[in-house]
Amino acid sequence: EQGSRQPGHPVMASATPSTLLHLATRPKVLGLTIGFGAYNYIFYLLLNWLPTYLSSALHVDLLHSFLYTGVPWFLATLADILVGGWLVDALVRCGWDHSRVRKTILIGGTACGLGIVGAARATSALEALVWISISISGLAAAAPVAWSLPTLISRPVDIGKTGGII
């Protein structure tokens, strides 16, 4: 439990929880909320737009579109578990600076999300598949790190509310 908070961040059993309004107006909470809004939009876009895009723009028949749709999500699951989870934990356990590790994965992963632009400009199904896989895998790798941030920016008594707002 201690490892999930910033050093020197004491547990305050009798602390009064902050109001939702107070938390929602904090700059770090607002920043995370905007970031997760963008993240969720791309995931929504890929869930709903991807099969239609593959079918209409790249002429992939419905029978094969499940392969092109499933591969990026499979790779994203691997990136989420192996990079966003295992690699971050392993590097921190080895003594790497936890803040630098988190920032690197978070920034690198969300930057990969821009690969969706490459997918929109793709001229073949395989090219689109590569760009979509890069985009969604990067976002998926960044997600576990992003979900750990409420524990770092909130008092222990406010972590649940902060996560709920985000």
Provide a brief overview of the structure.
With 166 residues, the protein is mainly α. The protein is built from 8 helices and no strands. The two termini are 21 Å apart.
Please provide a written account of the structure.
This protein is mainly α. 74% of the residues lie in helices and 0% in strands. α2 packs antiparallel against α6 and α3 runs parallel beside α6. The radius of gyration is 19 Å and the shape is elongated.
Question: In terms of topology, how is this protein built?
Answer:
Blueprint: H1 20-24, H2 27-56, H3 62-93, H4 98-112, H5 115-120, H6 125-148, H7 150-153, H8 159-165
* Uncertain stretches of 5 or more adjacent residues: none
The termini sit apart by 21 Å
For this structure, the quaternary state is single chain
Shape: elongated
Overall pLDDT confidence:
86
Please provide the ordered H/E string of secondary-structure elements.
HHHHHHHH
Features:
single chain; 166 residues; mainly alpha; 8 helices
